[in-house]
Amino acid sequence: MRPDNHFDRVAKEYNSSLPSHVVAHYLKKRVALVQSVIPLPGPILDVGAGTGLLAWKLAGLGYHVTGLDASLGMLHEVPVDGPAERLLGSATHLPFRDGAFPGVITVATLHHIADPLMVAASLREMVRVTAPGGATMIWDHNPRNPYWPILMRRMPQDEEDTRLIPLEEILAVLDHKNGHTVGFSRHGWTPDFAPAWALPAFKALEALLERLPVISTISAHNVVVVRKGR
Q1: pTM
Q2: Could you give all domains of the chain from N- to C-terminal order, each with its CATH number?
């Protein structure tokens, strides 16, 4: 999310940075969560859409999706004939009117924005463009998870200054003013090294660990959902 965009340089290798079956697993989890909070057909704004994997999956299900990203290189990797709209822009200054979208989502974007003031501005912008009664969904890395520092050292997209954003920092910005309802959950225990043949076992273990109150606090991802007041 910076002017000298690091993602322009890593765009072509981004989709292959993790095993395809692990990517598909988490993509399915994210789609299911979106379906649980944002009814069809949307419209949905995907902030930090990158190469459009999630945006175009949702569009294929019938959502009207706009994928916004600060990296032109990443947007160039989106299929030209994809069913969703793509737009170059910054999360800190979203080019949309107040309440433009019933649903706004962002996945694995905040830790690249990093700077506390810019993170806060991005969160406020996402809520601003969410329609009254609509939902804003923030899915990002959990700094309490001990595996992230190890994995991120191997990821080309993380070869820049990043900062894992604590859940408490996100919640402090997303207050309950104007009747907003803020909830959170924690997801993810299937690692990048899980072999395809063992994925069913990892998924079963993941489902168990996500339900354990203490253990779940170090799950891979924090997920915050804001239901905007009417």
Answers
A1: 0.94
A2: 6-227 (3.40.50.150)
